[in-house]
Hints:
With 219 residues, the protein is of the alpha+beta class. The chain has one domain (3-206). 29% of the residues lie in helices and 25% in strands. It has seven helices and twelve strands. It has helices spanning 3-12, 63-69, 82-90, 109-124, 130-134, 170-173, 185-197; strands at 14-18, 35-38, 41-44, 51-57, 76-79, 99-103, 105-107, 138-140, 148-154, 163-167, 176-179, 203-206. It has a three-stranded antiparallel sheet with strand order 4-9-6. Helix 7 links the parallel strand 11 (176-179) and strand 12 (203-206). The N and C termini lie far apart (42 Å). It comes from Flavobacterium caeni. This is DUF2971 domain-containing protein.
Amino acid sequence: MSFENLVEILEMRRNTLLNPEKWDDKHENMFLNSTIEISGMKLKSQLGKSIFCQCWSFTKESDTMWRAYSTQKNSVKISSTPRKLLSGLLKIDKNVNKVFVGKVTYLTSPKLKKLFLENAKDWIFEQGGLGQCKTLLYKRYPFKNENEVRLIYNTFTNFERLILKYEIDPDDLIDNIVFDPRIEYSDFKSKKIKLQELGFKKSIVKSNLYKSPDYNTIK
């Protein structure tokens, strides 16, 4: 995430979930945005308006992710756990049937289409809401490197807004903060001080992904 977004989390003590309509890849929301045919009538699904998500990754660090999400070379990576993500949301909504964490499965386009045709109606009309959330746990194979896990909140209420913010304790949610390995050291130091001034007391480091190895001297 950007440094500015992290500062906002620490200052406002709020986490942000997005409606899938905000995502760039429109394949992501195809289940919930599908047209449903009932008794010869075609209806546009509105279920997607009630769901908000946040995307994380099981991958600790990768060159690909830094280059994709840190184009200015000064972004940050924060770490947490599925338990902490769930407990943060459950503090504002104690209904365990509305809050989910799930790992994304990556499929080829033909397999994704087959999955859609075989399961879409059952998942969309599943009463408990789990089926609707399942629809957001499948992506096309070219995105496999993301190794995603998603925090999903099904509000069961049709919102017109695309962003949902809720109160958190950043110290409870965030385990550590890692800066882009390409950030200038002076910039890293000043930004680290800023985060500490905002009250973050856990580990804040610069990634050593591109650091020269200590075994490169040939004797």
